[in-house]
């Protein structure tokens, strides 16, 4: 008997809308994993549905990364979830991310609002203080208030306050690792990060061209995967005040890698991107022998600048804090 799946939450896949899935989606997906083959004609004949509906279901399976793309009519699609266990695990991971993603988005929005307020109050020296772990203005005010309150206390009140602080510190150490993270319970946060890690790993494995000629772009896919995992490591470190700064520097590197990984630099709409064309000679590089560096092409300049800045960026940060 086929194992039944009960997924009550939507999948978190930007190319796949769980709420608009076909009612036969899960049944077809189960059979595809069991048959280890898929085609529109097979789905059309097995489930006695219209051909257009069968095409739509197969397209949804592709968007959910249960099956691969069809490069041409002579070659069959690859079954990415090669066994029932992998298939079920993928559905569970997608459901977990979809269930907890709103909590993460809410926490990120609230924290960004608070950070914007603090950055506006601090002024130009905000990032320097964060990067060097220096106290901010509101932290200095809080320290002054605590000092003033401490000086106004009697000796007995000071002793009682010290005992209270010791107990509070002891309780925090005892409960460390059990509290909420990013507005989630600890077990939910662990499940969320684990599911994201597995989904990102699957994505990287799909993008790598194993078995073919070596492609130097694969190094950048792996590097981006490593940096994304480091971001997931740094963000929940509540005891590190500059964790947001470290995570943001890593995100900047990921954005630079995305520009480098753009497969077709001659196409696309980059008119909205600001590219300084006055310093193009500073970014002359010789890594790409396929064609010359067109200094008059805005898109080409953007690519080469991103490539050079990325390596300068990594040269500093990799030796300082990125393992």
Task: Explain what you see.
By secondary structure, this protein is mainly α. The protein contains 11 helices and no strands. Helix 2 crosses helix 3 (51-63) and helix 10 runs antiparallel to helix 11.
* Main β-sheet description: none
Distance between the termini: 48 Å
Query: What is the SS-derived class?
Result: mainly alpha
Fraction in helix: 55-70%
- For the secondary structure, the number of strands is 0
**Percentage beta strand:** under 5%
Order of helices and strands: HHHHHHHHHHH
pLDDT averaged over residues: 77
Low-confidence stretches: 1-14
Silhouette? flat
Computed Rg: 26 Å
Helical run tally = 11
Provide a compact summary of the structure:
It is built from 11 helices and no strands.
